[in-house]
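Hi C.,

You asked whether I'd gotten around to modeling the 356-residue construct. I have! Everything is below, sequence then structure, no commentary in between.
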Amino acid sequence: MPFLGQDWRSPGQSWVKTEEGWKKTTADDKNNNVSMESFCRKEEECFNKENLLLSLGYDMAAKKRKKDLMNNNTKVPYFHREKWIYVHKGSTKERHGYCTLGEAFNRLDFCSAIKDTRRFNYVVRLLELIAKSQLPSLSGVAQKNYMNILEKVVQKVLDDQQNVRPIKELLQTLYISLCSLVQGTGKSVLVGNINIWMHRMENILQWQQQLDSIQIHRPTSTDMTLTDLPASLQLNIMQRLTDGRDLVSLGQVCPDLGSLSEDRLLWKRLCQYHFTDRQIRKRLMMSDKGHLEWKKMYFKLSRCYPHREQYSDTLHFCTHCHILFWKDTNHPCTANNPESCTTSLSPQDFISLFNF
């Protein structure tokens, strides 16, 4: 009986059965007989491997783009541009992902809203409220969008040289909040690498330095200025200011404006605009002559109570179709009288809408 394997007497040889009987073959002959079959099999394997490598390459490229988008390796912001969104006021498992604060912050077009003078103060106030207590509730993408929008706000202020004080207060509030979150439980509260947030805190400090270095130059125009107007018109303009700090700054321009900024009626109207009668009665301050110190009362009330908020344009919520939209944006409401079921939302109301 022939040997059915590798011949121990001739390494590399083997016995195969043919029509003429058993025949001794070498390894080279065996490779030649199966060369065509092996070639086809290898070609197919190479083709499959090539497709697999291509698919893996596409997946890796997609993951890299997503990772760069989530980190600070790209300057392309991840913004949705929707004029209105649907908000379902309920905490069911199916609906919860579509009615969170982070989802609304992502999908509403805040990037364009900061370019509108009517909406700028509204968005800044909303950013401040989120910085105080709601930043950990945002998703990772929403937190990144928050920083991107904040960067655009700072750049707008640097270009226009307006609204410097509110933005400086916003940055200070955000920096204090981030310090407490990073030092405490930052890794479990803030989404993302802790080094990314440290880099963002450094950016906040740089923005603060840039805002501090702003120097507003006096225009060289020879036209009429505020000091050239009659005193009655100057006082009428001062009555349009809603912040007592602006009134004090205006009084430091020249002695004439300084004397007008001390007008008792001016500070009385300012107190009555921001605070209720009950709040004013609790903080009464009398002078030696028996007069009410309205200026001192204003700053004392400011430390105890929040100021009245008034905005040119706000977000609105329709109770009929549950749509959140800007005031001048049409929404697909099927009610006969859409205005009757629409309510204006302050920044605090906007946040409270998602805290159910």
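If it helps when you're writing up: The first helix runs from residue 27 to 33.

Thanks,
B.
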